Amino acid sequence: MELRVVDQAASKPAGKAKAPAPATPDPAAHRRNPGYPLDLDWVERTVMNRSALERRAATLPARRTVKKDFQAAWLLKAITLMDLTTLNSDDTPGRVERLCAKARHPVRQDILDGLGASGLAVRPAAVCVYHAFVRTAVAALKGTGINVAAVSTAFPHGLAPLSTRLAEIEASVADGANEIDIVIERGMVLRGDWQALYDEVKAMRKACGDAHIKTILGTGELATQTNVAKASLVCMLAGADFIKTSTGKEKVNANLVTSLSMVRMIRWFHEETGIEIGYKPAGGIASAKLALDYMALIKEELGTHWLQPHLFRFGASSLLTDIERQLEHTLTGHYAADYRMPMV
C-alpha cells in the first residue's frame, strides 16, 4: 500500500478507467505568495451564492466515497495533512510533550505493519500550540521534520493592540515556530474596512519573516459567505500562505459550505496570479468520514496536486484517534476502544 494511492482513489463513473497517479509535487519548488496591492475593485466584484454552495456541498458526502484498501490509503494520507493541535486553557509542557510523542508515532506499529505501510513516513505536518509552549514543542520534535505552528496575535479573539500581536508573532518565531496561525479582527470584515484588514495582515506577514502565515478568518462570525470570500481574497492579497476557517472556539466552525467559498477564492486567486495558496479547515473535524469529505472537496475543486501538506491541512485535536480506529477496523473488522489510541 502506498500513500500515493490517494491520487487514484476517488470514485469514478462505472466503465471509466482510473487515470494514472501524477508525480508528487516537490514542496521545495512551491513559490511562496509574495503579496499584491489591495485591489478594491476585485474585492467588490466578489459575490457568493449561498444556496448554490449549499447544493454543491450536499452532493459531496453521498457521491464521493472510498472503500477498503483505498480508504486506508486516504486515511494514512490524511494523517500527513494534519496540524495536530492542543489549544486548551489547561495545557502544560507535559501535555505538549506527550502530543509531540504521538506526532512522532501517530499510528500503532502493528497497524502499520498489518497494512503494509511500515516503510512509509506517516507523520502529521505540524504540531500546533500556544506561544508559551513553542520551545517545548521544538525540542520534542527536533530531527523529525514536523513543523511547529504557534497560534499568535491574541488568539482566539484577535483584539489586542496591533503592536502586541506583532510582538507575539516575533517572539514565537524567535522561539523556533516555523508556522504562525494568526487571527484577523472580524469587525473589520463586518464593517467592510478592507484597507485596515489588508494593512494588518501585511504587517503580520512581515513580522513572520520566513515562517509561513496562516490567516484564521473566524468564518462563523462573518455573517455571510460573500464576507468570507472577500476576507479570503484580502488576506491572500496581503501575503497569506494559507487561509483557515476557524479558531475552533466559535459557535460555528469549519463546514463544507464555507470551505467551498474559500477554496473557490483560492482557485480564482491562482488563476489570476499563478500563486498557490493553502487551505486549512479547523474546528469540529473529528471523524475520519468527515476528513475524507474534505479531501474529496479539495480533489474536485483544486485537483490532487493540492492534497499535499504545503497546500492543505486539517486543524485537528481528536481526528487522529478516529482515523487510527478506522485503520484497525480495516485490519480486524472491529473498532477499538478510544483508550487504546490515547492522544496525550
Descriptive account of the structure:
- The protein has 344 residues and is an alpha/beta fold.
- The chain is 44% helix and 10% strand.
- The chain is built from 13 helices and eight strands.
- The chain has helices at 40-45, 50-63, 68-80, 93-104, 109-115, 134-140, 162-174, 186-191, 194-208, 225-237, 256-273, 288-301, 319-332, and strands at residues 82-85, 126-130, 147-151, 179-183, 212-216, 242-244, 278-280, 314-316.
- It has an eight-stranded parallel sheet.
- Helix 11 links the parallel strand 6 (242-244) and strand 7.
- Helix 11 (256-273) runs parallel beside helix 12 (288-301).
- It is globular.
- Mean pLDDT is 90; it is low at 1-24.
Give me a quick take on this structure.
The protein has 13 helices and 8 strands. It is an alpha/beta fold and 344 residues long.
Q: What is the percentage of strand-forming residues?
A: 5-15%
Number of strands: 8
Q: The biggest beta sheet, please?
A: 8 strands, parallel
Order of helices and strands: HHHEHHEHEHEHHEHEHEHEH
- The helix content is 40-55%
Which strand order does the major sheet show?
7-6-5-4-3-2-1-8
Sheet/helix structural class: alpha/beta
Shape: globular
